[in-house]
Amino acid sequence: MKYALVTGGSRGIGRAVCIQLAEMGYPVVINYASNEAAALETKRLVEEKGVTAELLPFDVASVEEVDKAIDSWNEQHPNDYIALLVNNAGIRSDAVMVFMEDQQWNDVLGISLNGFFFVTRKLLKNMISKRFGRIVNIVSLSGLSGLPGQTNYSAAKAAVIGATKALAKEVASRKITVNAVAPGYIATDMTQDLDEKALKSHIPAGRFGTPEEVAAVVGFLASDQAAYITGDVISINGGLYT
Ligand code: NAP
Q1: How many domains does the chain have?
Q2: Is 138 touching ligand 1 by the criterion CB < 6 Å?
Q3: What is the mean pLDDT of residues 202-225?
Q4: Model-level pTM greater than 0.90?
Q5: Would residue 181 count as lying in a domain?
Q6: CA of 142 to the centre of ligand 1 (A)
Q7: Whose CA is nearest to atom 41 of ligand 1?
Q8: What is the CATH number of the domain that holds 204?
C-alpha cells in the first residue's frame, strides 16, 4: 500500500494537505512536533474521508528522531511504503539581519532546510526501488522574491527550491517527481500576528489565501496527471509576485 507522509500535518496548510490526500484515497501519516491535540483533530478529519490516518511525531530538524521514527514505521509496515512525501513543516522567526540571533537563523534553517534533507533522504530509497514517488516541498514567496526581516526564512526556502530542482533531475528516470509549491500569504497560525488589513491592500486578489487552496495544488502535483511535471515551483499568491 502506498502511504502519504505530511510533515507538520497537525495544523494549517499541512492539515489541509492531509485532508486533500485523504480525499484522493491515500492513507496518511501525520507528522507534527508537539501539538498532539491538533494532530488528533487532523487524524479525525482524515478518517472522516474513509482512509487510515496515523500519527508520527518527530522533530524534522533532528536526524536521530527522523531516522528512528521512520525506521519504526517501516518495521510496522513490511508491505507498505511512503510513496508521497510533503515537506511542509516550517516556522518563522523574523528579525532584520543586524539583530538576528544565531538561534533564529539555525532554527529556521534547521526545520525547513535540514528537515527537508533528513526526511527526504530517508524515504528516497524505497521510492527508488519501487520506481514511484511524489515529493512536494512547501516553500514560500519569500524564497523567490526575498522579504525584509526574513533573511533566514528566505534563505531556507530558496535553498529548498535549489534542492528541489537538483533532486528532480537525479530521480526523474525512476518515476519520482520533485516539485515545490510557493504560497504567498495564507491564513494560518503562522500569519496570525500579521496586519492582514494592511497587507491585503498590496495583494492583487485582495485577500489572504486559504490552506485548502494550497492543498489543491499539492493534490494535483501528487496525482497521476502531474507525472510529467518535475523540478518546478508553482506559486500560489493571489498575484502578489509573478
Ligand atoms: P503553521 O500553521 O504554523 O503550522 C506549522 C506546522 O509545522 C505544525 O504542524 C507544526 O507542528 C509543524 N512543525 C513546526 N516545527 C516542526 C518540527 N521541528 N518538526 C515537525 N513539525 C514541525 O504553519 P503553516 O502556515 O501551515 O505553514 C506550513 C508551511 O507553509 C511552512 O513550511 C511555511 O513556511 C509554509 N508557508 C506558509 C505561508 C503562510 O502564509 N502561512 C506562506 C508561505 C509558506 P505542531 O502543531 O506540533 O507545532
Answers
A1: 1
A2: yes
A3: 98
A4: yes
A5: yes
A6: 15
A7: 186
A8: 3.40.50.720
Centroid of chain to Cα 184: 14
Give CA–CA dist 182/242, Å, rounded.
Answer: 11
Q: What is the pLDDT of residues 137-192, one digit of tens each?
A: 999 999 999 999 999 999 999 999 999 999 999 999 999 999 999 999 999 999 99
* In-domain check, residue 242: no
pLDDT, residue 179, reads 99
Q: Is residue 163 part of a domain?
A: yes
How far apart are the CA of 90 and the centre of ligand 1, in A?
A: 4
For residue 89, the CA-to-ligand 1 centroid distance in Å is 5
Grade residue 24 by pLDDT with cuts at 50, 70 and 90: very high
Ligand 1 pocket residue status of 150, Cβ below 6 Å: no
**Domain span including residue 217:** 2-236
**Ligand 1 pocket, residue 192 CB under 6 Å:** no
Q: Is 117 exposed, middle or buried (0-12, 13-18, 19+ CB in 10 A)?
A: middle
Asked if residue 124 is part of any domain, the answer here is: yes
Can you read off the three cell numbers belonging to residue 234?
508553482
pLDDT digits (tens, 9 = 90+) for 194-204: 999 999 999 99
154 lines ligand 1 (CB under 6 A): no
Percent of the chain exceeding pLDDT 90 equals 100
Return the number of other C-beta atoms located less than 10 Å from residue 142's C-beta: 25
CA-closest candidate to residue 140, choices 188, 172, 198 = 188
Closest ligand 1 atom to Cα of 214: 30
